[in-house]
Amino acid sequence: MDELNQLLRQFQPRLNPGAYVFCVLQKDTAIPEGTISWFVEAEGISVILPIETAERSGLPIGFKADWITLEVYSDLSEIGLTATVSAALANAGISCNVVAGFHHDHLFVPAGRGEEALRILQQR
Fold it and tell me: pTM of the prediction?
C-alpha cells in the first residue's frame, strides 16, 4: 500500500492532443500506420488510432476517446494504481479504458471528457 500511495503522490496525468478511436480489423488486415496500440482477439484485431488515420483508412469507427497518459513509472506488477484511477473516474461517471504500456498506463476516456478526467486525476 505504501508503494501505491507513493505512486499516487508522484504521478502526473497528461492529456495527449488529438482525438482517438477504437476500431476492429479483420485478422488478415494490415495494421494502419499511425496505430498507437493493437491487440489480437478471437473476433478480430482491436486497434486504437488517431481518428484521422481511421477515417483516411476507411475504418468503421467505434469508441471515440481522449487519451491520458499517467506520467509515472509503474511496474507492470504494481497493485492498485489502475483500480484507484478507474474508481475515481467511475465515481464521476466517466468510463475508462486502460492500456498498460511497459513504462506508463494510458487511459482512454469518452471524447470530450478528457479535461474533466484530467482534473479529477490531478486531485488524487
Answer: 0.88
Which residue segments constitute the domains of the chain, with CATH numbers given? Answer: 2-122 (3.30.2130.10)
pLDDT at 121: 92
- As a 3-state breakdown, the chain gives helix, strand, coil percent values, each rounded to 5, of 30, 30, 40
| 105: helix, strand or coil | strand
Cβ 17 vs Cβ 55: under 8 Å: no
Nearest to 94 by CA among 113, 122, 67: 113
Q: What's the half-sphere exposure (Cβ side, CA atoms, 13 Å) at 20?
A: 24
- In degrees and rounded to multiples of 5, residue 102 shows phi and psi of -65, -40
Residue with cell 481522449: 66
